[in-house]
Amino acid sequence: MRVYSRYFSIHFKSVMQYKTSFLLTTIGQFLVSFNVFLGIYFMFMRFNKVEGFTYSEVLLCFSIVLMSYSFAECFGRGFDTFSSIISNGEFDRIMVRPRGEILQVLGSKIEFTRIGRILQALVMFIYGISQSNVSWNFDKILTIIFMIVGGTVLFTGIFIIYAALCFFTIEGLEFMNIFTDGAREYGKYPISIYGKRVLQICTFIVPFALIQYYPLLFLIDRNRNRWNMFLPLVACIFIIPCYKLWKIGIKHYKSTGS
Amino acid sequence: MRKYISFFRLRFSTGLQYRSAALAGIVTQFIWGAMEILVFRAFYKADASAFPMELHALSSYIWMQQAFLALYMTWFLENEIFDSIKNGNISYELCRPINIYNMWFVRSVANRLSRAVLRCMPILIFASFLPAPFGLSLPKDLNSFLWFLITMLLGFLVVVAFCMLIYIVTFFTISPQGVRMVAVSMIELFAGSVIPLPFLPDGIRQVFELLPFASMQNVPLRIYSSDIAGKVIYTSAGLQLFWLITLILVGKMLTNKALKKVEIQGG
């Protein structure tokens, strides 16, 4: 943990050397996901409800997914660019150091510009809450925190898989985008609207629904079963197979030699 | 002219080399398209009367969009060009007896075309086998198919002409980051790739349809799905032609201006 906070402060200082550039990229990041919001907004100008979800409920859902994705991206960015670490031989250096590989990869890059996205998620979140008529109590606040934590862990797990596959393929794989960018993009609507089949896949194989759909039902009082509250924590188990895959990948690792 | 043609062939055949990457891309785009259609199906189920297009027309729209993504995605910009401006390699290209605008234009056309050729067929074939409202259906008649081909070409050239502007602006700003990010993300919305333009509320839609971005994928895809029919076809195609010429003229003018006082970045 101490090492990570060192990494953190180093990255922060280096970013702060270029304040204008940092500001511009942050604004850019803000705008990039803004058109997704506009897409939702325009659709709901035409339709009142989709699968029984109202505009504000969808917005709440979107903001939570966006927020957890941006957190995961902010800290797990090292895994996202992992193919370059492998192909330029940087990973050999990482392996000879007396610290965990995961920690070093995490520390290799921390993307502060993602604050733009987190900020946007926050704005949308506040807007969604003020528009919705969720009756707040302690349980529900806890649910939201669980959702964000679970989502961050889940997305980090997917980033780890993405990186672990690079051990075998050297290159990043385009189809993994479905689980990263795709999940962010399509996580804007509660998963049930994609139909039963997709909901099943997202419950049992890649547990997106556990951090999004089920706890959301609890939030908006559609399902009062308190188990839904803890499902995001169950989703965190997903990171164990990801970690295993990563370990297998390391065993399999052959240096590219450059 | 001949040098541009051979340059085109060179780029085109290089682009065709990346077959395994294309396969991964096809799978991705197929799932992407399927998810997109599922979203619209849910909205259709919620309120069919508020749906501005037929569901099967929308499905065709989305499959065509996925199949020809490489032609129309504005975010598919070439890092090589940005890098050459940034690190000064552009000086070599400026020494050659060719027009740099034309060369970059040809290069972008070739790159995009080779990508699209590799990817479109499997998606089109697969999508046409899907059950009725979700699959790809044929256009209404031969006439609209012909106009689809014409406007597809025009729209494609408008995209390239617009991307040229982004490259040229980099001459003035050096770092492409900011321009690129903001321009590209807003265009996605204007061009109708976030949601098809008919879904926009009245008032906003009419304004968007006049912008150059609507002359990109919006026109051919909607002609294919018979959402645009009759006389509107001619006005849309005319508008495309107008924007194409305007964008190329502006691009050429800006290039000349940029090249007059070009500063080569050392290194």
Primary descriptors:
heterodimer; A: 258 residues; mainly alpha; B: 267 residues; globular
Please state the average pLDDT score of chain A. Answer: 84
Q: In angstroms, what is the radius of gyration of chain A?
A: 19 Å
E-strand count of chain A: 2
- The domain count of chain A comes to 1
pLDDT < 50 runs, ≥5 residues of chain A: none
What is the strand content of chain B?
under 5%
Give the overall shape of chain B.
Answer: globular
Main beta-sheet strand count, sense and barrel state of chain B: none
SS-based class of chain B: mainly alpha
What's the N-to-C terminus distance of chain A?
A: 31 Å
Q: How many distinct helices of chain A?
A: 15
Pair with the biggest interface: A-B, 34 and 33 residues
What is the average of the pLDDT values of chain B? 87
Order of helices and strands of chain B: HHHHHHHHHHHH
Percent of residues of chain B in helical segments?
Answer: over 70%
Structural class of chain A: mainly alpha
Query: Uncertain runs of chain B with pLDDT below 50, 5 residues or more?
Result: none
- Largest beta sheet: strand ordering of chain A: 1-2
Strand content of chain A: under 5%
Number of DSSP helical runs of chain B: 12
Note down, in words, how this protein is organized.
The complex is a heterodimer of chains A (258) and B (267). With 258 residues, chain A is an all-alpha fold. Chain A has one domain. Helix content of chain A is 72%, strand content 2%. Chain A has helices spanning 2-16, 19-32, 34-46, 55-80, 82-87, 90-96, 101-108, 115-131, 138-169, 181-186, 196-204, 208-211, 213-219, 227-235, 239-252, and strands at residues 49-50, 53-54. In chain A, helix 3 packs antiparallel against helix 4, helix 4 (55-80) runs parallel beside helix 9 and helix 9 (138-169) packs parallel to helix 14 (227-235). The model of chain A has no long low-confidence stretch (mean pLDDT 84). Chain B is mainly α. Chain B has one domain. Chain B contains twelve helices and no strands. Chain B has helices at residues 2-15, 19-46, 55-67, 69-72, 79-87, 90-95, 100-128, 142-173, 177-191, 204-210, 218-224, 232-260. In chain B, helix 1 (2-15) crosses helix 7 (100-128) and helix 8 (142-173) packs parallel to helix 12 (232-260). Chain B starts with a helix and ends in a 7-residue tail after the last helix. Chains A and B meet through helix 2, helix 3 and strand 1 of A and helix 2 and helix 9 of B.
